[in-house]
C-alpha cells in the first residue's frame, strides 16, 4: 500500500499541513518538528511530491498539444485544463506552439517520429488539410475548439467544439432583438476557411432571416500586419472604422480580445458603450466580466471541451478506433456592454 | 548549402507566398502550379517546414521551464519568448506548471533525472530553499522574474529580475507625489518570503521616507481561497475593503491582474477612477492599456528578461560555470487610472 502524507502526519502526531510545510521548506515551522518529519518520511519511504512521483512513472508516454497561432487567454486556460488531464493519466505533456502560417499536420508528423507520441491534441488551426496529408498521422488525435479536420476516415480521431455557425447566429439575432440593424462583424480573416468563416456565415444567416440587407462594408476583416485575434487587432480595425465614419450601432467581435480592443478604440473616440455603440465578443474569457462595462459574450465550455476531448483521446489510444465527437452549446452571457439596464 | 523556399520559388518561377500556399495545403492555388511546386520540392530535396526541421535536429537536448503558480498573462508572454529562444538554439522545450504550494526544486530534481535535462528555467517561485535542497540541482539553471535562489554557490546558476523593492518604492512615491497619503497596498501574501514581501518593503520605505505613518489596515493581503495574483483575488479583496468603508484614496496592486479586479470592485460600488480612487498595478501586461481607464503600471522588460536569462543558460550549459545575473529597471507608465489629465 502506498504511503501517503497522512501516514507521515499520523506517525509524527502533527497536522498534514505541518508535514507539507516541512516538505516545502516553509520557514514557519519548528526546526525540531521538521527534523522529526523528515526522519519519518525517510523511514516510511514516503515520496513527498505528487508531481515528482508522477514524473517517475511516465515512461515516456507523451501526448503533444499543438497550439495554432499566438497564445491567448482562451487557449491558455484550455491548455492548463488539458495539461491537468494528461498528467492525471500519467502521460508526459508536451506543448508546442505552431506559427499561424505553418502547417500543423506536418509538424505533428515530425513530432510523432521524434517523440514517439501516443496521441496529439490540435488546438485552433485554420488550414485546409488534404486526405493524403492527414493519412500521415499515425497516432490518434483530437481537434479541440475546431472541427476542421477531426472527422475523417483516414485517421483515428475525434473533434470537440461549439457550433460556430449557430453560436454566431445566436449572438447576431440577440443584437437584432436589442434593436440593432447595422451591426459590424469584427474579425474574420479574408479567405478564412475555418472558425472565422463559419462565424461570418452565422452572422449573414441571422441578418437574412431577420430581413436585414447585408452591407459588406460592415464586415471588418482582421488587420494582416497585426497578431490575429489580439486586442491590438480589434483596436486598430475599430479605429479605422471610426475614422471612416462608418455608420453602425453595434459591434459583434468574433473573439473577446478583439472586442476589448474595439471597446478601447470606441472610448478613445469619446463615445460611450453601450449608449453610442453596443459591443459583444465571443469565447467567454474572464476579462469580459472585469472590463468596464462588462462585455456580452458567448461562453465556450472550456472545462467540458478539455475533459471530453481528453477522455476520447485516452480511449482512442487504447482501442485504436475513432470515437464520435461532440458539438457543445455555447452560452450567451448578456452584460452591460449591450444592455444599459444591466 | 541549404535549399530554401526561395530556391523552390525561383525554380518554379512563382512567388514565395505561392510556394508557401502549396506547402500549407491552402485551397487558393492552381492545382497544376501546386503539382509543379511539390515536384520541385522533392527534386531540390527541400525540407518545407522550419519547425519540423528543427525538431529533427533536437537530439533530445531538453530545457525545462517550470512555471510556479497559476499561469497568467505576464508569465505566458514570458514563456512564449523563452520558448522561441530555446527552439532557436535547437533545444527541446519542455514546459511544466508547478502547483503554487509544491516545491519546484524537488520537481526539477525529478525532471532532471527523468528527461536528462540540460538546463532549467524557474519562473516565479516563492518558496525558501535550503542549500542542501539546491545542491541537488546538478544542471545549470536560471531564475527569471525572481532572484530568490538564483544566486548561490552550490549551483551553476544565474538570476534575472527587476528590483522589486526599488520598483515598488518608485510607484509608491509616485502616488505620494500625486497627493495620496492613504494608499492601499493590495496583494502581498501573509508570510510572503518572495516578491510580495519585497514589494511590501518598498512600499513601507517610500511611506517612511515621505513621513507618512504606516497604517497596517491599508495592507490588504491576498485572499487565501482564491487563485493568487488573479483578477478575482483583487476583486474580492477590494470588495471587502470597500464594504468595511476603509479610508483610502489610492490602490497600489502588486500585479496588474489584481489591479484590474480592484477596478471592477470600485466601479461596482458606483465610484470613479481616478476621481474617487486612483489605481496602479505592476507588470505592464497589455490589458492595462486596453482597460478603461488605462491603468498606470510598472512595465517589466519581458523580452530582455527572456533573452538575457536564456543567453546565460546557454553559456552556463557550455562552461559549467555560473554567470553574474542582471537586475533590470522597470518603467513606470503613467496613465489615466492615476492621472485624470491623461
Automatic annotation (TrEMBL), chains A, B:
Keyword terms, alphabetized: DNA-binding, Transcription, Transcription regulation
Pfam families, per the entry: LacI, Peripla_BP_3
Keyword tRNA-binding: no
SUPFAM superfamilies: lambda repressor-like DNA-binding domains (SSF47413), Periplasmic binding protein-like I (SSF53822)
Domain (HTH lacI-type) ranges: 3-57
PROSITE patterns: HTH_LACI_2
PANTHER family, alphabetized: HTH-TYPE TRANSCRIPTIONAL REGULATOR GALS, LACI-RELATED TRANSCRIPTIONAL REPRESSOR
Protein name in the entry: LacI family transcriptional regulator
Amino acid at each position: 500500500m502506498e504511503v501517503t502524507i497522512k501516514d507521515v502526519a499520523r506517525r509524527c502526531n502533527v497536522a498534514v499541513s505541518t508535514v507539507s510545510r516541512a516538505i516545502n521548506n516553509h520557514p514557519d515551522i519548528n526546526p525540531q518538528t521538521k527534523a522529526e518529519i523528515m526522519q519519518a518520511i525517510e523511514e516510511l519511504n514516503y515520496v513527498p511530491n505528487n508531481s515528482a512521483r508522477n514524473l517517475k512513472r511516465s515512461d515516456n508516454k507523451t501526448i503533444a498539444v499543438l497550439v495554432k497561432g499566438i497564445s491567448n487567454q482562451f487557449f491558455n486556460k484550455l491548455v492548463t485544463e488539458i495539461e491537468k488531464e494528461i498528467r492525471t493519466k500519467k502521460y508526459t505533456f508536451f506543448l508546442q506552439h505552431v506559427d499561424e502560417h505553418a502547417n500543423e499536420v506536418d509538424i505533428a508528423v515530425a513530432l510523432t517520429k521524434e517523440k514517439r507520441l501516443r496521441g496529439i491534441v490540435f488546438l485552433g488551426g485554420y488550414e485546409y488539410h488534404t486526405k493524403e496529408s492527414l493519412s500521415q498521422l499515425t497516432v490518434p488525435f483530437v481537434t479541440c475548439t475546431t472541427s476542421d479536420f477531426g472527422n475523417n476516415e483516414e485517421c483515428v480521431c475525434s473533434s470537440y467544439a461549439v457550433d460556430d455557425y449557430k453560436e454566431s447566429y445566436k449572438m447576431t439575432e440577440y443584437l437584432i432583438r436589442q434593436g440593432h440593424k447595422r451591426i459590424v462583424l469584427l474579425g474574420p480573416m479574408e479567405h478564412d476557411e475555418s472558425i472565422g468563416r463559419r462565424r461570418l456565415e452565422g452572422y449573414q444567416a441571422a441578418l437574412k432571416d431577420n430581413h436585414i440587407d447585408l452591407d459588406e462594408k460592415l464586415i471588418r476583416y482582421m488587420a494582416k500586419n497585426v497578431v490575429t485575434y489580439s486586442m491590438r487587432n480589434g483596436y486598430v480595425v475599430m479605429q479605422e472604422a471610426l475614422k471612416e465614419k462608418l455608420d453602425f450601432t453595434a459591434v459583434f467581435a468574433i473573439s473577446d480580445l478583439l472586442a476589448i480592443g474595439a471597446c478601447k478604440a470606441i472610448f478613445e473616440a469619446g463615445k460611450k458603450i453601450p449608449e453610442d455603440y453596443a459591443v459583444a465578443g465571443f469565447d467567454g474569457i474572464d476579462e469580459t466580466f472585469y472590463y468596464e462595462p462588462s462585455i456580452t459574450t458567448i461562453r465556450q465550455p472550456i472545462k467540458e471541451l478539455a475533459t471530453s476531448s481528453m477522455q476520447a483521446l485516452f480511449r482512442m489510444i487504447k482501442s485504436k478506433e475513432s470515437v464520435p465527437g461532440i458539438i457543445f452549446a455555447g452560452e450567451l452571457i448578456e452584460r452591460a456592454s449591450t444592455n444599459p439596464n444591466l
